[in-house]
Amino acid sequence: MSRLLSKMEVDRRLVGLAVVLLIIWIGFDIASGGRFITPRNIFNLSVQTASVAVMACGMVLIIVTRHIDLSVGAILGVLAMIMGVVQTDLLPQFLDYNHPATWILTLLIGVVIGAGIGGIQGLAVGYLGVPAFIVTLGGLLVWRGSAWWVTQGRTVAPLDHNFILLGGGIEGTIGATWSWIVAAIAILAIIYAAIMERRRRLSFEFPVKPVWAEYTNTLIKGGLVLVVVTTLNAYHLPTRAAERLLENKGIPVTPENLEISHGIPIPLLIVALVAIILTIVVKRTRFGRYIFAIGGNPQAAELAGINVKRMTVAVFALMGVLCAISAAISSARLQSAGNDLGTLDELRVIAAVVIGGTSLAGGVGTIYGALIGALVMQSLQSGMALLGVDTSLQSIVIGLVLVLAVFSDKYFHRRYSDPTA
Amino acid sequence: MTDMTDMTTKTDPLVEMRDIHISFGGVKAVDGVSIDLYPGEVVGVLGHNGAGKSTLIKILSGAYQADSGQIIVDGKEAKIENARDARDNNIETIYQNLALADNLDAAQNLFLGREIIDRFGFLDDAAMEHKAREVLHRLNPNFKKFTSPVSALSGGQRQSVAIARALLFEARVLIMDEPCAALGVHETKMVGELIDQLKRDGLGILLISHDLHDVFDLSDRLHVMKNGKLVGSVRTEDVTHDDVLGMIILGKMPEHLMHLAGPGATNGPAATNG
């Protein structure tokens, strides 16, 4: 089995994580009498995971450079408040209510301020030499406090109609047809990438995977896309909502056309986009390479001419940008912005990243690992909620799982990673 | 000096450091030291910890700047104020533990800081791996692990990667800090073979070590330092281990070579300047 995996050049840790996730899902499905693995629950799971997943992608880079960011939840809170005020109080002074440009301008302002907040923290870490743990611990208090000051504690609602779509409500999906199109594009991209990579390696006469492994890899990836999209398309709108939608469009209601699919929720699309972009950044750009070099050996990176301080600022600024995107998703999902939004998210994000195999010692970590880590965390939480487990017990279980995950990772890593392989 | 440079009179030195002084808070770390290095020559710089050998070399690699003195590269005075200046003068330093990022593979380490990018600005890993295979194969035909992180490599293989990195920068002067520290017998032999090969290619190599045994057999000449001063420069073939130990520990030139003594040498117990 392990030889098979190494021939396919599959990350062993990824397989382990996938197995854990599968066990959790099947376990909850059995315990709940078949209510966990349903299109509806999978859809909700994807929407609930989105906010933490986006931030987890950035946290991977922070932790890889041997830093930590404890302030992401608080930054999310203050940015959600700012974006709430921008779209409900500020922009309506210049634009009509629910103007199509409102959500774009709001998000843009959030992203710029997020980059600024992250950048300031990065400056303190990189140039002033204050440990990231302290800077962001201070940041946690500063930004959570600032979130209150934006409106003196008043919750901002209702939010802009288009902005709310970012949270993936009933209308915040792309529907069946577009979902199939996205699936088709994704599968074509997977095939294209595999062919190009193989061609490139062959042109340099490097060793390549056996052809069957290429086919299997591509088949698994493509199959996964197809399964996800099929599942999301199998989740239909509630009858009442479907009727209202048809009436709004002036289409007569019949039993057949009442079956309207949700399709891919917009927050899931955002996660996919963020993850793909950051994976490309990590694997194919100097910026990504330097992040890992700094994590592996900061002195070597410095001697190689990498500006470690400036890189630190950039990585924290990027984290701030992702906090803005997460803030948009979370507040849009709740259709309101309260100053306690994102409380304890920093812990969920760090837990997701660590479960996903990123080493707190730096230098090692993957984006896709963090995504699965986020999904594992959310699955546990949703599953226990579905079974009616007390919130207090949920926290205890999740806390234990986090410790267990890191322990087992260390244990298996020591046992099965052959340094001469 | 004349009989010592017999074998190299035809060529000019690659690098000369003349009358270098540097002090830190009143302590004279390097006090009027001059050394030189010729093409195709391996020169050991020996001394106890605190003798000033690392400080002297860091002046050459651009980490420190001398208070006074000259650095002459290819017969011309060179200003070396930082690592980039050193690199521009084809001087590369391989630091003992600072050279490689453990989590990156060989090719990624070789090209760190000057990656090959494609026309879209993305990293061209295949091209880098190709070039890495070429360079490493020349240095070490047994090198196979191109895609594992360098933490999975043996000490000797890591040195190969570090040296290959310097060669890619077209180094002509290679400074190696404790090149054989923490290496096993076999690994040390491998590094020795690497150094021999670089020597044949006409590079000048400075080996910095506090352990005589590491560098004695590899070096053509030895510069020995003590308390910031040069005890003397000797040809390896003219001296025994004990002679050199005497130079390192006592700061004393061997009797039969007294005429070669440097300005800091005494014939009695070491002069202290603290």
Automatic annotation (TrEMBL), chain A:
The chain crosses the membrane at residues 43-63, 70-88, 100-117, 124-143, 163-195, 215-235, 264-282, 311-329, 349-377, 384-407. It is found in: Cell membrane. Keywords: Cell membrane, Membrane, Transmembrane, Transmembrane helix. Pfam families: BPD_transp_2. It is a multi-pass membrane protein. InterPro entries: ABC_transp_permease. The keyword Transmembrane applies. It comes from the Bacteria. CDD domains: TM_PBP1_transp_AraH_like. Signal peptide: none annotated. This is Sugar ABC transporter permease. It comes from Thalassospira aquimaris.
